[in-house]
Specification:
42% of the residues lie in helices and 14% in strands. It has 16 helices and 14 strands. The strands form two sheets. It has an eight-stranded mixed sheet, with helices on both faces. Strand 7, helix 8 and strand 8 form a beta-alpha-beta unit. The termini are far apart. It binds uridine-5'-diphosphate-glucuronic acid (UGA). Uridine-5'-diphosphate-glucuronic acid (UGA) binds next to helix 9.
Length: 436
């Protein structure tokens, strides 16, 4: 059986571990003892559909978890590095996790007799695998291509569908300088994915660049549709969804990622855009368009704020119900969530905030403590409020209707995703991107 180690058990590493764990002999490694403790009990430490199921299945198949990178854990065919690559205070990529892991691997690799492929799956700025990781791994006299191989294999999964995306990726990109190593990994992927699965073989730096290109392209689409939504907002009779639907019929544009909203959040687009901007500047290119994507996105929360102000005479002291706290549906992740930014702005305006989310209440409580009131049902959160703001497109909000909003003190609904349907003159409905 193929032997695999996965170092770093966040969304990418844990999804990969539990999927590969059904096909191979896998050890999942993370330095965080709480995470390891929970995983060893078979309990995921974040919410993701089917994660618990696959965790259980894989553990029955032999998946184990460890807190340490040992020589046994490196004596494997494939060692995936999936640690976080945040940005530092200056907005540059922070490679300290990757460097730390590379140092520990280098120390233990000396006594490993096999020739493992070290695979960088974390999102890293172009050049990192060969200019940063390789010198650390070779410091003790070991050589790439003799003692180990070094590959770059970016991940494209989305939170909220992480397991599904891991099992059915749209493409696999493998970058490396040793065709032996690239082919070895390609063969492994070919054995676990369907016959038609696309596997692209390239060099390390191209693989790294592809990841940033994908994320900046996707972020660009969102900022562009959000700009168009803000224009539609001022054009009575228009609806950005109709505009998106029709432009999406042009195959050159396509239908996906054209949903206008409060701006993108999450642990990827904001940090990757910023890291790419800093990197571009550092190599002598001023990326004006990337800057515009980023600032359009950070301004979008003010577009939401303006809609609230338009609907209320005076915002101070008003009771505002926020529906949806996670940065997108089907996750409890609130990192860079626009809901959190909006709540901070509203608290500054002395609003009383009550919140609801099917999964992200606890994470939000960790940020705001008793500054907000937390509710388990949409009925409770809406009761007596002056304004309801729909922020995250959770399935259950799509079912809300006239009767649900009638229990508000002043039925004003700001729908940033245009998912609720209310045709009642007594309810003031404002959809972001809908010109009235
Ligand atoms: C994103 C990419 O989609 C993944 O391909 C990539 O692997 C991942 O980043 C990463 O680099 O790790 P993710 O951030 O998990 O995935 O989730 P998305 O579905 O891309 O959503 C990001 C944000 O964009 C959310 O706030 C979402 O609400 C927003 N969005 C998305 C829109 O406002 N409109 C859309 O049409 C699509």
């Amino acid at each position: 059986m193929t032997k695999v180690a996965v170092i770093g058990l966040g969304y990418v590493g844990l999804s990969l571990s539990v999927f590969l764990g059904t096909k191979a002999d896998v050890v999942g490694i993370d330095s965080n003892s709480e995470k390891i403790k929970s995983l060893r009990k078979g309990v995921p430490y974040f919410y993701e559909q089917d994660l618990g199921l696959y965790l259980k299945r894989s553990m029955q198949n032999g998946l184990i978890f460890s807190q340490e990178i040992t020589k046994e854990s490196l004596d494997r065919d494939f060692v995936f590095v999936t640690v976080g690559t945040p940005i530092d205070k200056k907005g540059k990529i922070d490679l300290s996790n990757i460097k730390k892991v590379a140092q520990i691997i280098a120390k233990n690799l000396k006594s490993v007799r096999t020739r493992p492929s070290i695979i960088i799956k974390s999102t890293v700025i172009p050049g990192t695998t060969l200019d940063v990781v390789k010198p650390i791994l070779e410091k003790n006299g070991l050589k790439e291509g003799i003692h180990f191989d070094l590959l770059t294999n970016p991940e494209f999964l989305k939170e909220g569908s992480a397991i599904k995306d891991t099992i059915y990726p749209h493409v696999t990109v493998i970058g490396g300088s040793s065709s032996y190593a690239v082919k070895k990994l390609a063969k492994f992927y070919a054995s676990i994915y369907s016959k038609n699965h696309k596997i692209i073989q390239t060099n390390n730096v191209t693989a790294e660049a592809i990841k940033y290109a994908a994320n900046s392209f996707l972020a660009a689409r969102i900022s562009l549709i959000n700009s168009l939504a803000n224009i539609c907002q001022r054009l009575p009779g228009t609806n950005v969804d109709k505009v998106a639907e029709v432009i999406g019929m042009d195959p050159r544009i396509g239908t996906q990622f054209l949903k206008a909203g409060p701006g993108y959040g999450g642990s990827c687009f904001p940090k990757d855009l910023q890291a790419l901007i800093s990197f571009a500047n550092s190599i002598g290119y001023n990326p004006v368009l990337l800057d515009a994507i980023k600032s359009t996105n950070s301004d979008q929360v003010f577009a939401v704020m303006n809609l609230i102000k338009t609907g209320l005479d005076r915002i101070q002291g008003k009771k505002i119900a926020i529906l949806g706290l996670s940065f997108k549906e089907n996750t409890d992740d609130i990192r860079e969530s626009v809901s959190i930014k909006l709540i901070k702005l509203l608290l500054k305006q002395k609003c009383k905030i009550s919140v609801h989310d099917p999964k992200a209440i606890e994470n939000t409580r960790n940020v705001f403590g008793d500054k907000l009131s937390y509710h388990k049902t949409t009925q409770d959160v809406l009761k007596d409020s002056d304004c309801a703001v729909v922020m995250t497109p959770w399935e259950e909000y799509k079912k809300l209707g006239r009767k649900d909003f009638q229990i508000m003190k002043h039925p004003l609904v700001i729908d940033t995703r245009r998912i609720v349907r209310v045709d009642d003159e007594k309810i003031n409905y404002i959809g972001l991107g809908v010109g009235t």
